[in-house]
């Protein structure tokens, strides 16, 4: 018997993450603009190009933060799908396989080696997204662990990760 999972309902949606990113970028653009009443005080001694360079650097950082959030959102979607399939005892083959895995590890299942691997084996539709997600999670690990090594793979942008998050909704339960 599957014990009930305690869902927090605090996860962010794709749209909330995108809105937060847009607000943060607008705030940065205002802070770094001459419309900011404290612009002269904030950027005393800076040339216009130094201000613009710093603005671009800060925008890149908030976009990386948003990438971390959207990747966390993707993981949450898959984990909640796993929970729903286990608790509701759906009869499709992926749900049955998830219940088998639940018997071994309950809710502590590995995301990449457990949940994603099963989805990769499940259907052609999911398989094409899983390889992209696995690549994106290499980027996520690099970001989340402090970027201390030279990253030599695909750098993902927020827009592509946002699209990916929306696309996986087509085969996950809600």
**Low-confidence blocks of residues:** none
Distance between the terminal alpha carbons, to the nearest Å?
A: 22 Å
Radius of gyration: 20 Å
Please, what is the average pLDDT?
93
Helical fraction equals 55-70%
| Structural shape | elongated
Total strand count, please?
0
Structural class: mainly alpha
What is the total domain count?
A: 1
Secondary-structure element order, as H and E? HHHHHHH
Overview of the structural elements:
It is a single chain. The protein is mainly alpha-helical. It has one domain (14-168). It is built from seven helices and no strands. Helix 3 runs parallel beside helix 7 (158-168) and helix 6 (124-144) runs antiparallel to helix 7 (158-168). The mean pLDDT is 93.
Keywords:
about 170 residues, mainly alpha, 7 helices, about 0% strand, elongated
Topology of this protein?
Layout lengths: L13 H18 L7 H4 L5 H41 L4 H13 L5 H12 L1 H21 L13 H11 L6
Helix pairs in contact: 1-3, 3-6, 3-7, 4-5, 5-6, 6-7
